[in-house]
Amino acid sequence: MAKKRKETFLQTAMKLFAEKGYHTTSIQDIVEAWGISKGAFYHHFSSKEELMFEIVRYHFEKLMVPVMEAKQKNQSPRDTFIDELTRKLEGILKHKDFFQMMMVEQLPKINTNIQHYLYAQRVRIFRWYCQRLIDIYGGKIEKHVFDVAAIVSGIFREYLFYMMFNEEMFRADAIARFIVRQIDAIVEHLGEEEPLLNEAAIRCFADMAAREHRERKTKILESIEQLKYQLSTLPIDKKTLYQLHAALDTLEAEFSQEQTTPREYVVKGILLYIDSQRIPSLADALVSLTKLVHDYMAHDER
């Protein structure tokens, strides 16, 4: 699906979910809004749940792009953080329909893929707060960085809530500057009090993400082995058989590396090549492998 067309589809579906509710919006409603057939829908998405997952991923990625761009500007760490918080607030307001729907629909309950993705985003954002605080305050905050990051997260969410329902009363940059001034005061008075949060307290989220990452990779490697076995039982000419085995070997190598992330263009190219051979007896196994790979790439935060 072309990128621009996919974005239009995702935005249209999100508006439908926001207006009618996720559970009461049918696939028929979606394809009518898109102007395509149900068959075309299933060519792009395996289910309504997968569509919602893509909507969630799309909006979170869109949200973080301008935030990350702020760091490229020649500013002090403090001004960079203010700029990033401002952009994050503005980005959420720009995608307000999505984030309001996310609160109403309780997205983590839709399926485990969405739940795990949102957990991973929470860890990612929390780590980002921690790094920015250390960038600004250095060793002075190191001992209490997790506690202060938790406070920042809570303050940010509370002001965001009021801003979403009354945009005219608040400016994003004013909230961002106010938050950072309060952090200044908190850091100034930390004293010798022992922190409540530490690495061990938040490790459960990171450990869960790492464990699921390994499990997804194991399933992909098992699926590749299954495809290889099926290939060996088929009456295919030697040249095609050799090329398909070579493609699967390359795919296996991409997912066998511990220290590097599979190259998306290589993985997609191999799957498209195998699919282009149009071998009916491999169709189901290839669909299963493609879904496993899609889930893995979507969750990969390494």
Automatic annotation (TrEMBL):
Residues 26-45 bind DNA. Keywords: DNA-binding. The lineage of its organism: Bacteria, Bacillati, Bacillota, Bacilli, Bacillales. PANTHER family: ACREF/ENVCD OPERON REPRESSOR-RELATED, TRANSCRIPTIONAL REGULATOR, TETR FAMILY. GO terms for molecular function: DNA binding. Residues 3-63 form the HTH tetR-type domain. It holds the Pfam family TetR_N. This is Bacterial regulatory s, tetR family protein. SUPFAM superfamilies: Homeodomain-like. It comes from the Bacteria.
